[in-house]
Design a protein that fits this description.
This protein is mainly beta. It is 14% helix and 45% strand. The protein is built from 2 helices and 12 strands; from the N terminus they run H-E-E-E-E-E-E-E-E-E-E-E-H-E. It has a 6-stranded mixed beta barrel with strand order 2-3-11-4-10-9. It has a 3-stranded antiparallel sheet with strand order 5-6-7, with no helix packed on it. Strands 1-12 form a two-stranded parallel ribbon. A hairpin with a 2-residue loop joins strand 5 and strand 6. About 6% of the residues have low confidence.
């Protein structure tokens, strides 16, 4: 029966069969979907985020050893407006230098948290705020305790309470995600 098939058609059929057999190998070599089966994305231990509404890019440390998230805050002032407890605080755009332009927030107090600091040190009570930020192109909302992190390398710490619902941390990687956000207009 093969003798009845003209040779050019037989060659084309053979080439097509080889291409189809090779197709699964090509698919296996493409990058994996960034979202795992459990719905979490793999992030590096350092990630760029954009603080909202300012859109300023800062580096966040993703810390599985910390239960809660924290953000650097100076000039913390608690007050009340229309019966609502609020807090005003600032942080520097240039965290490393602690100078230059400051970002100022005026937010409702979302609670307080008591942080154990180590043997023999008093417990630290901190104000908690809800703050929006953008990571991996998505605007998210998190609870952050306010603390002076001037002596730390990174102004933002994302802890387990936030991470468990969004990311797993690969300690061998940094800056896995792009830092662009849907609302970016060429920000910093």
């Amino acid at each position: 029966m093969l003798s009845a098939v003209p040779m050019p058609y037989l060659s084309i059929a053979l080439v097509l069969m080889l291409l189809c057999a090779a197709a699964p190998a090509v698919q296996k070599s493409t990058p994996k979907d960034p979202v795992r089966a459990d719905g979490l994305r793999e992030a590096g231990w350092l990630q760029s985020i954009r603080l909202q509404p300012h859109g300023v890019r800062v580096t966040a440390k993703l810390d599985t050893g910390a239960k809660s998230s924290a953000i650097h805050a100076v000039e913390v002032e608690r007050f009340e407006r229309n019966g609502v407890k609020r807090v005003r605080f600032s942080l520097y755009k240039n965290h490393a230098e602690q100078s230059g332009t400051k970002l100022t927030y005026d937010l409702p107090v979302a609670g307080t948290v008591r942080i154990k600091r180590g043997f023999g040190k008093p417990v630290d009570e901190r104000v908690i705020v809800r703050l929006s930020f953008c990571i991996d192109g998505e605007v998210m909302d998190g609870r952050f305790s306010l603390v002076n992190r001037a002596n730390r390398n990174y102004p933002v710490l994302l802890g387990r309470e936030f991470l468990k619902d969004h990311f797993v941390v690969n300690a061998a990687k940094t800056f896995v995600f792009p830092y662009g956000c849907p609302s970016d207009k060429g920000g910093n």
